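Reading a protein record of the kind used here takes only a little practice. To see the layout at work, look at the sequence and tokens printed below.
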Amino acid sequence: MRSYIGLIHKDPDSDYGVSFPDFPGVVTAGTDLDDARRMAEEALAFHVEGMVEDGEAIPEPSSLDQVMADAANLDAVAVLIPLKSQARKSVRLNITLPEEVLREIDAYAEAHGLTRSGFLAQAAKRQMSEDDNPGNVKGYALSA
């Protein structure tokens, strides 16, 4: 199981905040240290699962030396947070599409904050789900 460095920050009159240098923008907080670690495990697992679904590569964990070389991290306490979810491995593939379809896919994905791979994965899952559940429209079962 991989572990990532979480940085715990504590200001007076605040909860214990946790950030992840390997995942900029992923932050969480807890009322005490144990709660902060629990919340950090959940936030990390949730974020990585989203990256996997979007077809994004999961970074290798940075070393403590790499993290602490950034002066902005020196006021935090570094802790190891295990990645509890079993992130599925992404597989690279080669496909052929008409050029116009590829342009439309890329435009749609970009407009919706997705990667090309993430969009194609979501579209495939949605189609398979609809095929497995005939009569369902956007998650709602139709009744006679």
User: Anything to note?
Assistant: Confidence is low (pLDDT under 50) at residues 138-144. The domain at 3-82 is CATH 3.30.160.250 (Double Stranded RNA Binding Domain). The beta strands are 3-10, 16-19, 27-30, 77-82, 136-137, 140-141. The chain is about 40% helix and 20% strand.
